[in-house]
Design brief:
The protein has 438 residues and is of the alpha/beta class. It has eleven helices and 16 strands. The chain is elongated, with a radius of gyration of 26 Å.
Length: 438
């Protein structure tokens, strides 16, 4: 069944179809009165580069590509699942899909338009790409939190050419939407008011009204450990605070990891307890591999790695290298989450692999990990949770441990036992951590 088009998408697509484009691509004249809602509704810049943001279905990108076939239309999404949906829509419509971009900001570019690793958040136009000539943005109350809307409006402003036009469609209260636009953009015109949506046009003239930093920094730790500092951005799961379920999972996982040691031969290749005072022994932690799926800002995985590092330093206090043989892979479908996890790992001095994916670990990677940790979403009738558990079963070594967390165990417990046959319920912080062995 065809998915219903949102009111915001419909009003934006209708506007694209009737926008006037000057015949002379060098006509850079702007309307005389930018605040006149009845003024000329022309796209006065040459439409060589267009950014479409906030539209998860791909319908706005389709309309823009058909309206300006010679332009470079970039379709942006924060989430890899939405980026794949846009790509499929474009290909189904017979349109090129090479400029579908899943990244932390609209100006972020990489070697792959849909990269397999995260990128740095909120790049500027001058640093990462040529500015866009026009932007089309939409939001609904269900699609974006208010902070992310403001953050993306700032991001679009930073990556739009001087004199470039933004066309922005909002669902909900039109007066509140206008206030939101005017927090960032000068020269905001109301183009259309429909029953359930409103459309604005704003032209970039100089700096925004105000630039805000929406990043949040806070600390978290597990019992016996030093606090780690975490940064999150709008769009990250549990922005501005540690998730209680994530902390419960991290605390149980930190108890799960046991750093074993072995004596290493001293000089001459002999181990002789009687010579211990003359030939010191060093202790090396056993290799330990961790997969954190749905990692968000990296809260669970990084706290677990830090717990292993602390145990390593106790076993071998003279070593300046803490557990070099342990490794962690962090996976999330949201580019903002990957950006935050990268920043947090770097701050903590933890080397990690980052994968931007909505389908878990690549299929060819089997039996690599000792520990899987995941905080799967509960919605979508546990279909996403099943992707987590299928990945866990495939990725774990024999004897590896799968830990997931949920508020109420019933639904996820039955699903986890489908893959692992048995799951132990560990209650922590008002949550249920489910433990299974591969």
């Amino acid at each position: 069944m065809e998915k219903k088009v949102t009111y915001a998408e419909a009003i934006l697509v209708d506007e694209i179809k009737v926008l006037n484009v000057p015949n002379d691509p060098n006509d850079l004249k702007l309307p005389k009165d930018l605040n006149d809602p009845n003024g000329p509704n022309d796209l006065k810049l040459p439409t060589r580069r267009i950014i479409v943001a906030g539209n998860r279905s791909g319908g706005v990108a389709v309309a823009a590509m058909r309206r300006w076939p010679e332009a470079e239309v970039v379709a942006h999404a924060f989430d890899y699942h939405h980026a794949r949906a846009i790509r499929k829509r474009l290909l189904d419509e017979g349109l090129p899909a090479r400029n579908v971009r899943c990244s932390a900001g609209v100006g972020t570019v990489g070697t792959d338009p849909m990269p397999s690793v995260g990128t740095d958040p909120m790049p500027s136009a001058t640093a990462d790409c040529q500015p866009f000539d026009a932007a089309f943005f939409m939001t609904t109350p269900q699609s974006m939190p208010a902070e992310l809307v403001l953050d993306q409006l700032q991001d679009i402003h930073a990556n739009l050419a001087e004199g470039g036009a933004l066309y922005a469609a909002f669902e909900g209260d039109p007066d509140e939407a206008l206030k939101t636009m005017r927090l960032v953009w000068k020269n905001v015109n109301v183009l259309k008011r429909a029953k359930h949506a409103v459309l604005f046009r704003a032209v970039k003239r100089g700096a925004p009204v105000k630039m805000r930093d929406f990043a949040a920094t806070w600390e978290a730790s597990v019992p016996g450990g030093e606090p780690l500092t975490f940064t999150t951005y709008p769009g990250c799961f549990c922005h501005r605070r540690p998730d209680a379920g994530g902390l419960a999972l991290a605390e149980v996982a930190a108890r799960e990891v046991k750093v074993e040691s072995r004596k290493v031969k001293g000089e001459g290749g002999k181990v002789n307890d009687e010579e211990e005072g003359k030939t010191p022994f060093t202790f090396h932690p056993s290799p330990f591999t961790i997969l954190d799926m749905g990692c968000g800002c990296g809260l669970v995985g990084l706290l677990v790695v830090d717990a292993i590092r602390r145990q390593s330093s106790i076993l071998n206090p003279q070593s300046s290298i803490l557990n070099p043989q342990s490794s962690i892979t962090l996976i999330d479908s949201h580019a903002r989450a990957i950006a935050a996890a990268k920043a947090n790992a770097a701050r903590a001095g933890i080397e990690a692999e980052f994968i931007l994916s909505d389908d878990g670990l690549p299929r060819g990677r089997v039996g690599e990990y000792d520990l899987f940790v995941g905080n799967p979403p509960y919605y979508s009738d546990y279909r996403i949770a099943e992707v987590f558990l299928e990945t866990a079963y495939r990725a774990l070594k024999p004897g590896g441990v799968c830990l997931t967390v949920v508020k109420t165990a019933t639904g996820l417990l039955a699903l986890q036992e489908k893959y692992f046959r048995k799951a132990e319920v560990i209650k922590r912080r008002g949550y249920c951590v489910l433990r299974s062995v591969r």
